Amino acid sequence: MTESVAGSIRSLWRYPVKSMLGEEIDRSAVTERGFVGDRAYALVDASDGKVASAKNPRKWPRMYECRAELDETPRRVRIRLPDGGVVAVDDPNAAAVLSRILGREVAIETAASAAPVLEELWLEGSPNGQDVTDERIALGSPAGSFFDYAVIHLVTTATLEHLSELYPQGRFDPRRFRPNALVSVADGQAGFVENGWIGKTLALGDSVRLRVTDPCPRCVMTTLAQEELPADAGILRTAARHNPVVGGEGRGPDGAYPASVGVYASVVAGGTVRRGDTVRLIS
Questions:
Q1: Is the pTM of this model over 0.90?
Q2: Number of domains into which the chain is organized
Q3: 88 Cβ partners below 8 Å, 6+ apart?
Q4: Distance CA 20, CA 23 (A)
Q5: What does each C-alpha distance from 78 to 22, 75, 142, 173, 206 come to in angstroms?
Q6: How far apart are CA 243 and CA 260, in angstroms?
Q7: Regarding predicted confidence, which is higher, 84 or 126?
Q8: Rounded to the nearest 5 degrees, what angle is found at the Cα of 64, between the Cα atoms of 160 and 170?
Q9: Strand pairing class (152-156; 181-185)
Q10: How far apart are CA 37 and CA 195, in angstroms?
């Protein structure tokens, strides 16, 4: 077994309501279900039972106008609305408020169905030729969760810097990729560094241990406008052109990921992760 310093934690994020904007945090408890409070809730379309997702911005164009935040004490999720108002997810009127904003009747759920599904819009057509397809989620995470795949998602500064060099007019802000942790890599590392972490273990700080399992396939969400970031299809096209990763759990045609940025991980040992923690690679 060998161990080396991979870098340090530059920023940490959680997303208490799936597909809404999240919040940057200084620390988080980590369990087998990932960061505490991450994807704790999701909206479900009352008409078809599918999970509401900005992956289909035609159907859900206003998801990124809402921001979910977790109050630690007492533990309660609140949603900041487009008009500046705030509603708590446990408010009896919350679902009605969100339904009016989103233009569709939704329910607020804390646990996914046995086979949760959302819709994904493909910029240039899916492998089966359709522009919108159903996608099964949570295949790499505990039952009842709302993660796209695994419970932890990491991206490195090296990857974002490399993509920026390849497409200088694009803004490769980490918010586009919705990581739990942005890792500032150690000196001398460049390019798609985290691709080399797949199949290995990362130690974050004193106690948290992650098993890096898969590349993270990217979708139309990376191209959407949010806050001051403009809509930009070139973000996704650049990743697809320069980082098509092969492998993983069969999550694409013949195991190929047409566009990949960052990696997924499962939790081997929990604990607390903090901004600035050292990240070590164990192989």
A1: yes
A2: 1
A3: 76, 77, 78, 79, 94
A4: 10
A5: 11, 10, 24, 25, 31
A6: 6
A7: 84
A8: 30
A9: parallel
A10: 27
pLDDT score, position 72: 78
- Looking up tokens 């809402």 gives 66
Query: What's the first-to-final CA gap in the chain, in angstroms?
Result: 6
For 11: left if phi > 0, alpha if psi spans -120 to 50, otherwise beta; the answer is: beta
| Distance of alpha carbon 140 from alpha carbon 246, whole angstroms | 17
**Pick from 7, 4, 10, 3: nearest CA to 187:** 7
pLDDT 10s digits, 248-281:
443 443 444 578 999 999 999 999 999 999 999 9
The secondary structure element, H or E, covering residue 99 is: helix 94-102
Amino acid of residue 141: S
List the one residue out of 244, 237, 33, 57 whose CA is nearest residue 141. Answer: 33
> pLDDT digit string (tens) for 151-181?
999 999 999 999 999 999 999 999 999 999 9
Looking up tokens 């960052």 gives 262
Q: Which residue has the tokens 């809509």?
A: 231
> What are the structure tokens assigned to 132, written together?
């919108």
Percentage of the chain exceeding pLDDT 70: 94
Give one word for 29, left, alpha or beta, with left for phi > 0 and alpha for psi -120 to 50: beta
Domain that includes residue 139, residue range: 3-282
Average per-residue pLDDT for the chain: 93
Are 219 and 252 a contacting pair, CB within 8 Å? no
- The CATH number that applies at residue 63 is 2.40.33.20
User: Which tokens belong to 164?
Assistant: 């920026």
Q: What is residue 101's DSSP assignment? A: H
CA–CA gap between residue 41 and residue 51 (Å, rounded): 10
Contacts of 227 (CB under 8 A, 6+ apart): 21, 175
